[in-house]
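INFO batch 0412 | record 1 of 1 | parsing
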Amino acid sequence: MNRYGILRLALTLLILFSGGQAAPPEPSPKSEPFILGCNLPWLDGRMGWDIAYHEEWGYGFDQPRVEAIFADLQEIGFTSVRWWLFADCRAGLRFDAEGKVTGVQPEVFDHLDIILNELCPKYGLTLYLCLLSSLVNSDHFGIITDPAIRQSYIEHAVKPLAQRYRDNPSLFAIDLMNEPEADIRGRYGNWTPKGTDEATIRVFLRECADAIHSVAPDMRVSAGSGCHAFENLQRGMYSSLGLDFYDFHTYNDTGHLPPAERLRLDAPCLIGEFNVTLAQTSDEVKQAEVVDRFLRETFKNGYAGAFFWCYEDISPDKRQANQPSYSLLRPDGTWKLCVQRIRQFSQQNVAPLYGKD
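INFO prediction complete | emitting tokens
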């Protein structure tokens, strides 16, 4: 099946399983069904080592915890999970003395096998796997800026990952990097003098996308643009990079989005992160209204899907009662009001996605 086959399959499932059980879907301008996702960027605060091994902190993977979260996501009505893998490279990858990547920790593949082969099918979810995030302040910025180190990362991490999961039906797509703008200096990046230039980021993304497609031609690849909503997509920063779809992140207190066709992109576009601004997260009524508007605007305006940010952004043992949080959950673990809006939207408009066949 080609890389959009999952969407045609899900449309068939929508027809077969609707059976009058949910309210009729709103009219959609798209021929493909909508993907409703949730960000689980890290497991209980263990960014970058939640499925890896860290020399100081040990093993981060907790299968019962993942199962509990996946069951919750399924109950809400999500069909996909966006999960960060290596993040800032604090764990998961092996390096030599020159900073070159020599391989992936075997624990990473062991745990990914469990997630993709056992847990995703069990809970009706697919995985949108985000590889990196914000290297500019890490010891491994050379993965982006140094051609030799970049090539070692591609050969010893990116390609083995793509080869291992090239035919896995639970892998929705690869997000090459979360918000590359965070590693770009200046106006269209992080608004600071620190970082690399846009051209270097584009080379990095293009080489990674080409490498994945060289060993897994049907694997979907994207990169989640951030910090500037859809502006950098419109100005062409992500064009001609071999991406299969576009992805941008947006946080506002209106839920407004322009029609996807106005972005004038040459491939589908989804919203990889959305929510109200952090200051508004404590107002559950307001958040629920805005989240509902976000979902309905992405659906009617021609986007391929939307991923809520996020299931939980602060470790449960560190959350305070009145602390602002993007989480779907209150400090006591109960659902915020926005969850009911998400459930209703899912029942009306979303077909189950079980991956590619």
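INFO post-check: The first strand starts at residue 35 and ends at 39.
INFO record closed
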